[in-house]
Request: fold
Amino acid sequence: MIPHTSSTLIFNSHFTILILLSNFLLTNSLCRNFCNNIPINYPFGIDDGCGAAQFRRMLNCSANDLFFLTPSGIYKIQNIDYEKKTVVIFDPSMSTCSILQPHHDFIMTDIQSATIPPSPDTVFALMNCSIDSPVLNHYKSLCFNFSGHSCDELYGGCSSFKLFHILSNTTPACCFTTYGTVKYMSMNILDCTHYTSVYNVDGLKGVAPLDWLYGMKLGYSVPDLGCVQCVKSGGSCGFDVETEAFLCICSSSSSSSSNNATRDCGANGAGRGSGMSAGKSDTDAAAAAPLLVIGAAAAAFVFFLGPFFS
Ligand SMILES: *[C@@H]1O[C@H](CO)[C@@H](O)[C@H](O)[C@H]1NC(C)=O
Ligand SMILES: *[C@@H]1O[C@H](CO)[C@@H](O)[C@H](O)[C@H]1NC(C)=O
Ligand SMILES: *[C@@H]1O[C@H](CO)[C@@H](O)[C@H](O)[C@H]1NC(C)=O
Ligand SMILES: *[C@@H]1O[C@H](CO)[C@@H](O)[C@H](O)[C@H]1NC(C)=O
Reply:
C-alpha cells in the first residue's frame, strides 16, 4: 500500500510540474491575459507592447479593478464583450438615480473617439439645462426620446433627480442626446448642470428609470493586422513599443536572436520568434528568464528521476 501511495503522489507531482511547465511555455507570460476576472484579449493589452497599438495605454489593471483611461478621467470597466466588441464603463463621478453629482466633461482622445466611441445605444441625459442652453434653442434637434421615454421622466423617476424639481419648484429642461453632442460641446457650453448616461437603451421600453443601465457602452473595431494568423501559430499579438509596428509575440523563446516582426510564430521555427524582446522592458525579461531556467530544471528532474519512482 505505502509504495503504491507514494508512487501515486510522485506521479501526481510529475503531472503538476508538467502542467505548470506547459502552461508557462504555452501562454505568453509577457502579456497578462486577465485582469482580476476580466479576460484581456486582442486588441486590448494591460502590459505595454501587448494588444494593438491603437489601444495602447487605455487600460489600467489595479489590484481590484480594470480601468479605462481618458483625458477626463479613469472609468471602471464593468465588462468587455469580445464577441459583440463592446466595453461597458462607469463614470464614478456622474449622477445616477441614487446620487446627484455636478457634471464634468467626458472627453476622449481623438484616437479613442475614432476606435472606441460610445455606441449608438448609449444615451447621454443632460439635466437641469438653462433656458439658454444650445440644446433648447439652435440645437434642439439633437434631443430625442428613446424607447418611449422622454427625458423629463427622469425628474420623477429617481430619488436623486427629484431634487431638481423640489429645489426649483419647476421642471428644468432636460435632453437625451448622443455622444456626438457632448463630444463637440463641453458641458459648460451645453449649460446643463448635471448629466447621466444610460446604455442598451433599445431594450428599455417600459422599464422605469430606476432599472435603467447607467454607464456607457463603447463599441470598438479590431484592426486587421494579421492577429488571427499569429494566434493560430501560438503567439499573441502585440507591437513594437518604439515603432508601434505589429509584432506577433511568440510564447516560448530561448533565443534572443530574433527581434524581428513576425506574423507567424511557426514561420520562424517552433519556439522562436520575437519572444522576450517584444515590447517589454528589460526588467520583465530579466524576471522571466529565471522562471524559464526553473522550468527547464523541473523538466530535467522529471525526465531523469521519473523512471526511478514510477
Ligand atoms: C495605473 O494605476 C496605478 C495604481 O493606481 C498607477 O500607479 C499607475 O501609474 C497607473 N498607470 C497608468 C498608465 O495610468
Ligand atoms: C418626447 O416625449 C414627450 C412626452 O411624450 C413629448 O412632449 C416630446 O415632444 C417628445 N420629444 C421629442 C423630441 O420627440
Ligand atoms: C440647476 O441649475 C441652476 C442654474 O441653472 C442652479 O442654480 C441650480 O443649483 C441647479 N440645481 C441643482 C440641484 O444643482
Ligand atoms: C531579421 O530579418 C532579417 C531579414 O529577414 C535578417 O537578415 C536578420 O538577420 C533578422 N534579424 C534577427 C535578429 O533575426
Remarks:
- Confidence is low (pLDDT under 50) at residues 1-11, 15-28, 254-260, 268-310.
- Residues 143-145, 150 surround 2-acetamido-2-deoxy-beta-D-glucopyranose (ligand 2) (CB under 6 Å).
- The first helix runs from residue 2 to 26.
